[in-house]
Design brief:
The chain is mainly α. The protein has helices spanning about 5-15, 20-40, 45-60, 70-90, 90-100, 125-145, 150-160, 165-170, 175-190, 195-205. The chain has two domains: about 1-90, Rna Polymerase Sigma Factor, Chain: A, CATH 1.10.1740; about 105-205, Arc Repressor Mutant, subunit A (Orthogonal Bundle), CATH 1.10.10.10.
Length: about 210
């Protein structure tokens, strides 16, 4: 939908329209969930944060500034929800994702050949599907070793295709700082994945 169309829907949702609220959820929940899964490394945590973020956003639509993108505002709310959850829970809450990623998940040590990420084919065999999962696990493991802000910049730029200026606005930092974080994150990802030539090649080609 266009910005104007979205703004009309926001106004209707703010006035109490459940149908308009549902439209906003349908338009943004998939991208918000994908962002949070990568950011947190924990799908069930991402689900909880998505739910709470939409509740807060829809409850406070009167605070939304139409000069900005709704998605930017929503992502900011979601990040705050996650950080608040992390702070209130035990230290294990914030470290579980790193521990799980560091172990490589259930695919750790899988010697199967890599099926490249981003290639969609029909009729994948069980082995190919398993290898795709192995690649995703390895990339998530590398992501979780990045500092939080570098991880977020990398996800927003590459996965969600946000421009540098929008990431800077979202994080409230200069564009030059965003570029610096992006450069360092790419370098660290390559470092982490050097133990796997196949993975290193995929990342080098995708993030060059």
């Amino acid at each position: 939908m266009t910005r104007d169309e979205e703004q009309r829907i926001i106004l209707k949702a703010a006035a109490g329209s459940r149908a308009a609220a549902s439209q906003l959820i349908d338009a943004h929940q998939k991208s918000l969930y994908a962002y949070l899964v990568r950011l947190t490394g924990r799908p069930h945590v991402a689900e909880d944060v998505v739910q709470e973020a939409f509740i807060r956003a829809l409850t406070h639509l009167d605070r939304f500034d139409p000069k900005f993108r709704f998605s930017t505002w929503l992502f900011t709310i979601a990040k705050r929800v996650y950080l608040n959850m992390s702070a209130k829970m035990s230290p294990r809450f914030s470290s579980d994702a790193v521990d799980m990623a560091a172990s490589g998940g259930e695919h750790a040590g899988d010697p199967c050949p890599i099926v490249r990420s981003g290639i969609t084919r029909s009729g994948l065999s069980a082995d190919e599907s398993e290898c795709n999962n192995h690649l995703k696990d390895a990339l998530q493991q590398a992501l979780m070793q990045l500092p939080f802000v570098q991880r977020e910049v990398l996800i927003l730029f590459h996965q969600h295709e946000w421009p540098i200026w929008l990431i800077a606005q979202h994080l409230d930092i200069p564009e030059g700082t965003v570029k610096s974080h992006l450069h360092r994150a790419r370098g660290k990802m390559r470092e982490v994945l050097t133990s796997s030539p196949e993975l290193s090649k995929v990342v080098a080609e995708a993030w060059s």
